[in-house]
Design brief:
Strand content: 5-15%
Bound molecules: zinc ion
CATH superfamily of the largest domain: Glycoside hydrolase/deacetylase
Largest sheet: 9 strands, mixed
CATH architecture of the largest domain: Alpha-Beta Barrel
Structural class: alpha/beta
Radius of gyration: 23 Å
Shape: globular
Length: 447
């Protein structure tokens, strides 16, 4: 037996209308994120993939499907699906599995509590796939990679530990909503989660696959495959090009959440922060190329970005040029405006509008309340700013919020073990044995 698709599509339409109805009035900030229709379809396809028993009845399939939605915290959607088949929901018999499932979901929804603890945001750079290439000191220095990067091995180890620690991926845009009375302001929104869960935002900086990283054991770019999933394109140690599911944070997290839907609040993944000077996601959109070539690169990158957004990923501006003027605090208003304009002109056609700005080098100076920089960002539609810092909270500045982030990279896992141990996991369980000993220079800034 197979689930009646027509019936489900009708039900989806109803859910979509209800969901969008509920979200009327939200600003573009909150319109980022996974579309509910895609989520429901993807979940159904995953369930189908998982089902090994072909002789399952329609009722059993519906239960598996609803259960997967429940695990992903799609309570209303799961109930809707079950009620799409009223004959089952209303059946009179000793066993009423559909009715019991509806009750179970209703209980889960009713048990949500308002979260008021620390607000965690951790960040990464693109992951090291081949430590033997990253740490060989050919090309870019091994020291920089050793400090500011995380390896695939480490990222994969962290996920179950974070999940066991009660963390649940949360969309940064779900922290705010627009203020109906004062449209120029944002309001902090209540966070409702299952008891004991801690919201966790993650971001990945510089997902540009820069030229300097070639031959150093990173992915080359992200690619959308025929199966609708985004893969990493990697040159393996034999020099062959491969599409892999574990060449960076994105496919690894997508697969992890597929298997562990409870780790994500309604499909939330993370924020992909892009600069612009070498294009986006591994596609070069650069002044040296012709307009036609750049248009093609933009279109290719957009296909990948659209697929990522449908899977719960958000995008952020990480400045166009990642200029050293940010780091040394000498960025003038004029330079800052031009830099932001260039990003909007070059990268926004790939990512679509975003309201998230992640500062290069983690600087907080540009986000100061009342500063001309933050005013400029707000005027350009940004209202969520992220710098680097260890205060686990959100600063509400009227028409924008600022949220500090902490790095989970080689430097922090070696030099900042205590903070990681206190909040997240035992770093010694995670550290890649292939890392060389960490030597730190006097100056240390990279984000
Ligand atoms: Zn950066």
């Amino acid at each position: 037996m197979r689930i009646n698709f027509k019936k489900l599509i009708i039900s989806w339409s109803a859910i979509i209308i209800t969901t969008f109805g509920a979200y009327t009035g939200l600003n573009m900030a909150e319109s980022q994120g996974a579309e509910i229709e895609t989520i429901l379809k993807n979940t159904l396809l995953e369930v189908r993939k998982d089902l090994t028993a072909d002789n399952m009845t329609e009722k059993e399939e519906i239960l598996v499907y609803a259960d997967k939605l429940l695990r992903g915290h799609y309570y209303d959607e799961a109930i809707e699906i079950l009620w799409t088949f009223p004959d089952y929901a209303l059946e009179v018999s000793d066993e009423q599995p559909i009715r019991s499932k509806i009750k179970e979901i209703e209980r889960a929804k009713a048990s949500l509590v308002k979260y008021s603890g620390a607000l965690h945001h951790v960040f990464f750079h693109s992951l090291i796939v081949y430590p033997e290439l990253a740490f060989d000191n050919k090309g870019h220095s091994a020291q920089g990679y050793n400090m500011w990067m995380t390896t695939v091995y480490e990222f994969k180890k962290m996920l179950p530990l974070l999940k066991e620690g009660g963390y649940i991926l949360y969309n940064i845009t779900d922290f705010i909503e627009s203020d109906d009375l004062k449209p120029e302001r944002v309001k902090l929104k209540d966070i409702m989660l299952p008891p004991g869960k801690i919201p966790l935002v993650i971001s990945i900086d510089d997902v540009n696959y820069y030229e300097y990283m070639k031959h150093d054991g990173f992915a080359n770019c992200l690619v959308l495959s025929d199966d609708g999933r985004v893969y990493t394109q990697v040159v393996n140690l034999e020099g062959e090009i491969e599409l892999t599911r574990d060449g960076d944070v994105m496919p690894i997290l997508d697969d992890y959440v597929d298997k562990n839907p409870e780790f994500s609040w309604r499909g939330a993944k993370g924020i992909i922060a892009l600069t612009g000077f070498q294009g986006a996601l591994g596609y070069r959109i650069i002044p040296e190329k012709s307009k036609e070539e750049n248009d093609i690169a933009t279109a290719k990158a957009k296909i990948v970005a659209d697929a990522l957004k449908k899977n719960g990923w958000l995008f952020a501006c990480h400045s166009y040029g990642h200029s050293a003027f940010f780091r040394n605090g000498t960025i003038t208003n004029d330079k800052f405006k031009k830099d932001t304009e260039k990003w909007i002109k070059t990268i926004e056609p790939v990512t679509g509008k975003t309201n998230i700005y992640i500062s290069p080098y983690g600087v907080s100076m540009i986000f100061a309340r009342g500063s001309s920089y933050s005013k400029h960002l707000v005027e350009n539609g940004f209202n969520i700013f992220c710098h680097v810092g260890e205060r686990r909270e959100i600063y509400h500045h009227g028409n924008y919020i600022a949220m500090p982030r902490m790095n989970l990279d080689g430097y922090k896992m070696v030099k900042g073990k205590n903070a990681i141990r206190k909040y997240y996991f035992e770093p010694d369980l995670v550290l890649d044995p292939e890392r060389p000993p960490l030597v730190t220079p006097s100056k240390k800034t990279k984000t």
